[in-house]
């Protein structure tokens, strides 16, 4: 089956007991055991597994061309579990990209993850930095985020995966911004593709789930499954059901997100009030050629810097009418956000940077809104 078909059918069938076409939401926390002690449908207790989560995991595995998936209560729960699931025989040292999702920075600075592991944070757009970091000390895990938050930096997945593999380190790609429609990291030798399902896969800003999709069986995958069962940061059946509803239109939504964003990038590049536009679809973006090779299109996220600094960019965010001033991304509504003021004193975001998640509205309405806000 092709992607669009798998997104709708994978793991799902007409319900045998009721003939309902959409899968029921199984809220039951526990499942009956047969007289002989067996579990006729293999489900025992909802934290360990439940029908809605099971189908979502199967669907994500299929969409990423993976071996297995493990779903968690949020993207951050999946990220935490991935780092902690590093097998005990691996060095507790992780190489991370310098431009990355801000929640990971908080994880390192505010929790014991930051002290239980050594982190080496480097700009991975330059492969020399990755080589140097790998040679500095034995490494267990290399974390890739591409395109990255909030500067849309592009990392060569295949090249970094190869460097990591030669050093015996596991690799993860945070594939949230690209989605499996545009980028399949497991094809390039990466061990895990990670998603904040919260974003594009859910697609409607109304659920929170994270998932890691594994390329193959491994001690780390076994740990991850054990962490899910035993530590218990699991998504609810209802949210899994919502994610399965959202994923059915993922390919079609991404096509519109990409074409809208590309048109907005072209328009912003030529606007006199704009200092810089960060979008890998632009020919002048430093990662354009790598993105063109490893992605089928350039995504629905872009950021831009407004001439005049902090105040000028805040003024643009204040004047938009159609864009919603909100954090997060990947929904049907367009969002705009001044990252530096959201992230606080430890921010690495330029003070005049606005990040936008381009939604599914008509592109001309979005352009007109930005035009009046930039006046
Ligand atoms: C949102 C996001 C996360 C975290 O997901 P949550 O569901 O909010 O915990 C991780 N990585 C990226 C790139 C994200 O955009």
Please, could you describe this protein's structure?
- Helices cover about 40% and strands about 15% of the residues.
- It has about 375 residues and is of the alpha/beta class.
- The chain has two domains: about 5-245, Type I PLP-dependent aspartate aminotransferase-like (Major domain) (Aspartate Aminotransferase, domain 2, 3-Layer(aba) Sandwich); about 250-375, Aspartate Aminotransferase, domain 1 (Alpha-Beta Complex).
- The chain has a seven-stranded mixed sheet, with helices on both faces. A five-stranded mixed sheet has the order 8-9-12-11-10.
- Helix 2 packs parallel to helix 10 (about 235-245), helix 6 packs parallel to helix 7 and helix 13 packs across helix 15 (about 365-375).
- The chain is globular.
- The chain binds pyridoxal-5'-phosphate (PLP).
- Pyridoxal-5'-phosphate binds near residues 101 and 199.
- It is an enzyme of class 4 (lyase).
User: Which stretches are poorly predicted, pLDDT < 50 over at least 5 residues?
Assistant: none
**Annotation field: number of helices:** 15
CATH-derived topology of the largest domain: Aspartate Aminotransferase, domain 2
* Backbone shape: globular
Bound molecules: pyridoxal-5'-phosphate
Percent of residues in beta strands: 15-25%
| Distance N to C terminus | 49 Å
Average of the residue pLDDT scores = 97
Domain count = 2
Number of strands: 12
Instruction: Describe the strand arrangement of the main beta sheet, using strand numbers.
Output: 1-7-6-5-4-2-3
Report the radius of gyration as a whole number of Å: 21 Å
**Helix fraction?**
25-40%
CATH superfamily of the largest domain: Type I PLP-dependent aspartate aminotransferase-like (Major domain)
């Amino acid at each position: 089956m092709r992607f669009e078909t798998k997104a709708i059918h994978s793991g799902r069938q007409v319900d045998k007991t009721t003939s309902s076409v959409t899968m029921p939401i199984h809220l039951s926390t526990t499942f009956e055991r047969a007289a002989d002690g067996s579990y006729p449908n293999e489900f025992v207790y909802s934290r360990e597994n439940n029908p809605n989560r099971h189908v979502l995991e199967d669907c994500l595995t299929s969409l990423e061309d993976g071996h297995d998936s493990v779903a968690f209560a949020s993207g951050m729960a999946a990220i935490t579990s991935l780092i902690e699931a590093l097998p005990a025989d691996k060095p507790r040292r992780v190489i991370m990209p310098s431009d990355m999702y801000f929640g990971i920075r908080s994880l390192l600075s505010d929790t014991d993850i930051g002290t239980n592991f050594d982190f080496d944070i480097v700009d991975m757009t330059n492969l020399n930095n990755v080589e140097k970091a790998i040679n500095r000390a034995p490494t267990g895990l290399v974390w890739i985020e591409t395109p990255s938050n909030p500067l849309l930096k592009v990392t060569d997945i295949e090249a970094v995966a190869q460097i990591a593999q030669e050093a015996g380190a596991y690799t993860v790609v945070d594939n949230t911004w690209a989605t499996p429609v545009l980028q399949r990291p497991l094809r390039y030798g990466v061990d895990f593709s990670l998603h904040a399902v919260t974003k594009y896969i859910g697609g409607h800003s109304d659920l929170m789930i994270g998932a890691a999709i594994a390329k193959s069986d491994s001690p780390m995958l076994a740990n991850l499954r054990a962490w899910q069962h035993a530590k218990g940061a699991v998504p609810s059946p209802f949210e899994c059901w919502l994610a399965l509803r959202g994923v059915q239109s993922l390919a079609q939504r991404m096509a519109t997100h990409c074409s809208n964003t590309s048109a907005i990038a072209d328009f912003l590049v030529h606007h006199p009030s704009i200092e810089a536009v960060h979008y890998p679809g632009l020919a002048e973006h430093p990662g354009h050629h790598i993105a063109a090779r490893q992605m089928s299109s350039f995504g629905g996220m872009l950021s831009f810097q407004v001439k005049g600094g902090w105040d000028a960019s805040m003024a643009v965010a204040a004047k938009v009418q159609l864009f919603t001033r909100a954090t997060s991304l990947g929904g049907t509504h367009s969002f705009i956000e001044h990252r530096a003021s959201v992230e606080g004193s430890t921010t690495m975001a330029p003070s005049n940077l606005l990040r936008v998640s381009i939604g599914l509205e008509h592109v001309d309405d979005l352009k007109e809104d930005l035009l009046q806000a930039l006046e």
